[in-house]
Amino acid sequence: MVLPHHDQKAPSNYAEYLAWGDQDRWELIEGVPFNMTPAPSTEHQTVISNLHGEFYQYLKGKACKSFVAPFDVRLFAEDKADEEIIDYVQPDISIICDKNKLDSKGCVGAPDLVVEVLSPSTAKKDRSEKLRLYRAAGVKEYWIIDPLNQTVEVYNQEEKQTTNIVARVYSKDDVLKVGIFEDCEIELKSVFDF
């Protein structure tokens, strides 16, 4: 599990993170730093590559763009200086449909769709802190992919009004209709093709 890193060298805002250069990858969630340095597994990277390929093909010629980590997403950052930003993450895949949210550093504000692929070190954070953070920030659709069990949990923002957060769960034999697009369906067996 990736635990918050509380030493004094850990970045406490986005400006400090930028000053670190390429030493380590960090995320900051509600001001708490998380070191993202451990290398992902082959299955993790395969799922990301396969899914990004599906999105890339679908999005050709469309306004929306798909980005793969490392790609900085600064949440609640509109009209804030880097020193004021305390929520930034590097989702495995981000889809952004508003080009005004893109700058040379990544995304300012909530992506339309975020995908996190679970690993043993990030599973708890992806299912708790990041789920809450993405919902509060207004991410329209959040996917949590479990490569070990070959499942995808899909959380939709329109269900935000309910007190219980419930995901739709899909298996490798399902076809998943992407909620933010009218005509995009992904056969999950192609995503879990290890």
From TrEMBL:
Origin species: Tumebacillus flagellatus
Source superkingdom: Bacteria
Annotated SUPFAM superfamilies: Restriction endonuclease-like
Annotated Putative restriction endonuclease domain residues: 15-163
PANTHER family: GLR1098 PROTEIN, RESTRICTION ENDONUCLEASE DOMAIN-CONTAINING PROTEIN-RELATED
Pfam families registered for this protein in UniProt: Uma2
Protein name (record): Putative restriction endonuclease domain-containing protein
